[in-house]
Amino acid sequence: MLLKLTIKIFKKLLLHSLFWVAVLFFYMFFFAIDDSDLWLSARFSIALMPVTIGTTYIFSYTLIPKYLSKRKYFLFGLYSFYALVISASLIIFSAFYGYLLVFGLQWEGSYPVSKGLTFIYFAVYLVIVLGCGLSLTKSYFKTLNKNEELKNTLLESELQLKIQELQYLKMQIHPHFLFNTLNTIYGLALTKKDSAPDMILKLADLLDYILYETKKNKVPLKREIQHLKDYIELEKLRFGDRLIAEINIAEFSSNIEIPPMLFLPFLENSFKHGKSSEGILKIKMKLEIIENQLVFFLKNSVPKQKEILDQNSGIGLENIQRRLQYIYGKAYDLELSTSKNEYSILLKIPLKF
């Protein structure tokens, strides 16, 4: 830590030293533009360096950061006026001292500086403006980097919050799904049907999927489809001949991945609310790719308007919509439609997310 600080200080001193050496050479050649002796010009330039350096640092490290950057314009203008008056007086004193340093007590009218103080003021304040400009540029980029770092920190924090909320939504979906499935097994156990053991095995496979696979951000689409089929088989055991299911699932590449538990809550919701006035449940499900989008369509029969309203609500459906917003933003399309005896869902998601 100490070594890094030492290196940083050394680099800063080196850069500042190089800058002021360049300024000294500028003064030497600027004041010798009329073929004056370069060595005499150098001695005169040295006399002007203290006031140039002092004024530049006062503006760069005091007046600009403390007043101009903080939009204290009145104080900045007032103190700048004081600094300019004092610096102008010191320039006169430095120029006079420079003359003495170069010529002693004898006046050499041929020396170019004899053109007037305006010539000297122009050179000194040109350097001061340049130094302040470099300081402002450095400060601007430093502030820009800090703002970018702060922005990245905020974005990372928001991302972590979204990840945590997404995990929370998954945790809400799992008990909701499990409760309905166990309720089905309970009904079979009460009637002592032989299909109860098969249903328990399929439920075990689904629970294995829920407990382990849903911790991942992506799962193979084929694996999600297999659990959709397992769930339908579970419900067939419960409904028996009262279920009419039309399932059309296209063939998909094994490379396609989607978020886990994306379609299953919709299907579970259909079985929970779907029925008909004759006690028969009609389910139609289709999954295919259209124009580089994965399209999921699901329709179930309902007996009356109240059931439709109930199906539009509920923990599972609400949470899956929030998950879709977090994962896809505005890149997905979800349409919920109702008719007199049917409820349907049309979900379109991009193949890549």
TrEMBL record:
Gene3D superfamilies on file: Histidine kinase-like ATPase, C-terminal domain (3.30.565.10)
One function term, GO molecular function aspect: phosphorelay sensor kinase activity
Lineage top rank: taxon: Bacteria
Domain Signal transduction histidine kinase internal region: 165-243
Keywords, alphabetical: Membrane, Transmembrane, Transmembrane helix
InterPro entries: Bact_2-comp_sensor_kinase, HATPase_C_sf, MFS_trans_sf, Sig_transdc_His_kin_internal
UniProt-recorded name of the protein: Signal transduction histidine kinase internal region domain-containing protein
Native source species: Zunongwangia mangrovi
Record lineage: Bacteria, Pseudomonadati, Bacteroidota, Flavobacteriia, Flavobacteriales
